[in-house]
Amino acid sequence: MKFIFVTGGVMSGIGKGVVAASLGKILQFRGFKISTVKIDPYLNVDPGTLNPVEHGECFITEEVWDFKPVPDSDERVYRISEIDQDFGTYERFLGITIHPSNNITSGQIYLSTILRERKGRFLGRTVQLIPHVTDMIKERLFEIAQKDGLDVLIVEAGGTVGDLESSIFLESFRQIRLELPKHNTCFVHVTLVPYSKAVGQQKSKPTQHSVKMLQSGGLQPDIVIGRSETPLDDEIKEKISLFSNVPKKAVVSNPDLENIYELPLLFEKQKLGDLLCKILDLKAKLVSYSEVTNFSEWKKMVQMFKEADKTVRIAMPGKYFNITDSYISINDALEHAAVHQGYKPDLKMININENTDIYAELKECDGILLTPGFGERAVEGMIRSAEYAMENKVPFLGICFGAQLFWIAFCRKYLGLENANSTEIDKNTPYPVVDLLESQREVTEKGGTMRLGGLKILLKEGTKLYKAYGKKEIIERFRHRYHINNDFLTKEAYEKGIVVSSTDTTGKIINSIELNRPDHWMVGTQFHPEFKSRPFRASETYSGFIKECIKFKHK
Ligand code: GLN
Fold it and tell me: Ligand 1: which residue has its CA nearest to atom 5?
């Protein structure tokens, strides 16, 4: 069991997830089987109930995990498939499917501890942070490390060293290092190295402070990775080395990059892979060729990302734009699909409010992606965006909520159903064309209760979506409570041009719709194909969409 623990210093949001994924990548290049864990110190059991504006996108896993806080007891089971957005980065870099139990939150750890106490699992003892909570954390980590015969488990601790809420996790890491043989753990500290314009120098002081903070908790980093605008110069490396008590060659540069997929290559250039192997006493393995784990293939792929220079302009009407990460998997999926066709997406985020002039905003775009979401804000503007696509034959992809709003627009425009709506938005709509799923009617709790995870989808031959996939059965990931109401799929609806292009295996739940027009690509999917898009293998749905956008651009 070998662990790499990745901690962060100075401030959050400096790309620790990309660093953790890149460490994994350079170990994959050497033939190692790896996986990743993310620790989120917040008290939510999972991030599913968090506002995307506060915490970025919520990633959806292929599998759904039945989390039992008290093992061997079915009394309480929480379904978890909604996890931290860093898992999107991990899956895209590493090409592996990661289990939802690899996202450990304080919520899960404390819930387990308290419920086990009530079950008498600690009878007679005072339940304490140390050893009971730390044991719980270690139990989770060891379980994951042993599960799939991994060579190395990379554990990223969310937040920043010095945060009260993450300190118990750092304490667990310290204990693991103490318990395991010397070469079984490696500590990587990722910090910010700011540039001071006033003195014209990179500054190491914030890094010095955060390393001191780590050391005061009994943790000595083996490697310090400095996030900066430009590469770390020699002098600053020496300084960080001296004050952090790590050799100079273990101070690694992580400058701003044009493309994040380049980071593993940059790490290789600095011999970080060899250093990791030395610290962990690993000998590179001979493995059979795979396009995902081969160094030269990755290099070629990065080249392809750099060379794509033509642009295709995609408008994204939505409402979670206060931070850049709210739709990160969608942005990435658009990029993957475009790059594979020699293009870069130029994304126009339209943050809809009452005053937005949708028609003016959408003019001159080559495609419209209607975003997922919840609740009534911005809905009318989003519906108008779908109308605009229908009227101007702009290629259109609606994802989840975006597909539901496409259907509402169609019902209002072509079926004359005035004020048609989703019951999520308007409980008293005369035409509930989008309604709660049957399986949701009894649901009262909020966390982990949607229709979630990777599910089998049956595609209908001859449809645009079928053409994109070229097969009848696919698995994509879901996250919704509402769905397109079958009752309104009348003969007239079909005659006016709506097509159900896929359903679930019972044929009852509509998984996607599209317009039956040879000269207009308008597709809405209830599922989220972006979660399975990879830089080396773009999503079929997104590729189909981008292809049409490029055609439209040149018309
Ligand atoms: N709010 C909608 C539902 O629950 C759509 C969800 C989404 O876009 N992920 O069905």
Answer: 401
Q: Please give the distance, rounded to the nearest whole angstrom, from the Cα atom of residue 264 to the centre of ligand 1.
A: 35
Which homologous superfamily does the CATH classification assign to the domain defined by 2-203+259-298? P-loop containing nucleotide triphosphate hydrolases (3.40.50.300)
Q: Is 24 in the pocket of ligand 1 (CB under 6 A)?
A: no
Model confidence, pTM: 0.95
Is 336 assigned a catalytic role? no
Could you tell me if the CB of 481 is within 6 A of ligand 1?
yes
Encoded tokens for 304 = 């392809």
Residue 232 in contact with residue 199, Cβ under 8 Å? Answer: no
* Ligand 1 centroid from CA 426, angstroms: 14
Specify the domain boundaries for CATH 3.40.50.300 within the chain: 2-203+259-298
- H/E element holding 185? strand 185-192
E strand map for 28-162 = 34-40, 58-67, 78-84, 103-105, 152-157
Q: Tell me where in the chain the CATH 3.40.50.880 domain(s) lie.
A: 308-553
Residue 11 has pLDDT above 90, yes or no: no
Q: Over 271-312, what HEC string results?
A: CHHHHHHHHHCCCCCCCCCCCCCCHHHHHHHHHHHHHCCEEE
Instruction: Name the band, by pLDDT with cuts 50, 70 and 90, for residue 325.
Output: confident
Tokens 């009318």 appear where? 380
- Beta carbon of 52 within 6 Å of any ligand 1 atom: no
Query: ∠ at Cα 246 (245, 252), nearest 5°?
Result: 135
The yes-or-no verdict on residue 322 having pLDDT over 80 is: no
pLDDT(84) > 80: yes
d(CA 78, CA 88) in angstroms, rounded, equals: 22
**Domain topology for 308-553:** Rossmann fold (3.40.50)
pLDDT per position as a tens digit, 408-449: 999 999 999 999 999 999 999 999 999 999 999 998 888 889
**Does the active-site annotation cover 549?**
no
